[in-house]
Description:
The protein has helices spanning 92-105, 118-129, 147-154, 164-172, 182-190, 195-210, 225-240, 275-284, 303-317, and strands at residues 14-21, 24-32, 37-42, 63-68, 111-116, 134-140, 262-267, 289-293. It is α/β, with parallel strands linked by helices. It folds into two domains: 14-146 and 244-317, 3-Layer(aba) Sandwich (Rossmann fold); 148-242, no CATH class. Strands 1-2-4-3-5-6-7-8 form an eight-stranded mixed beta sheet, with helices on both faces.
Amino acid sequence: MDLRELYPEIEPYDAGLLDVGDGNRVHWETCGNPDGKPAVFLHGGPGGGIVPPFRRFLDPEAYRIVLFDQRNCGQSRPHAGDHGVSLEHNTTPHLVADIERLREHLSVDRWLVFGGSWGSTLALAYAQAHPERVTEMVLRGVYLVRPSDEAWGFTPTGAAHLFPAEWAAFRDAIPPDEQDDLLAAYGRRIEDPDPAVHLPAARAWIDWEMCANTLLPATPPELDEPTILAFARITRHYIAAGGFLPAGGLLAGVDRIRHIPAVIVNGRYDMKTPPDQAWDLHQAWPEAEFHIVEDAGHGGAEPGTRHRLIEATDRFAAR
């Protein structure tokens, strides 16, 4: 099988900051064909922000590709890397409302929704709130934010078994008498106003997050201190609140989107969002096309995963 490559590098033809209320302005950009089929790319994290390779999963001749930095990260303002910035108005319902406001701002009637990792969570939440605005869905590295999913990432009984040294570094950044609840202990430190406290905690948090991103070890990106702090603050904020999802979680809302054509892709060796989450979503939504990539981890650009994602967006371009 000839694996599909990412589309060539491309620059935005338009961009801006959209006032979404609560003192927040969301950075957005559009690239590709201004007259093409609209598609919105939802980044992960939460708090990860967009990077140029995200533009390359969709055919720029066929799609009008919309990307944006979610609240308080990337080029959106205010930035959570400023420790004085409150996250009070950064929740999943706020982000869903931001997507709708951006759609209206760009005069898009309906669009394909593409999301990976936390982006898959947000894609499902958005589609369930506004199914009439979604033409198709492409989901990668499904993240349902259930208690069992969080236990995999943040207790000794999950991914820690596969990354023992990295887990030890994450755990031991917290004093032994607080290690019984690492999420709470990290929360106290990440939100401490003293940089000597919150910056080491944020670095330890992101080191643990990044260690399991790909099947084969990869050099993590070099990030500046504001980006590290924003990522750690926003991610912990969402995890502590169960993703700000409704009672019953995302699986309970599948009936609202069952009619939407969808492709679900997950790496067999995804250590961030193991394939049981994608499988459980597919069991609730058997109409969605389902692919396990046998030689992939969590990263969207890993060859087999990339192939399935681009195959899906190419196919949907013709609808």
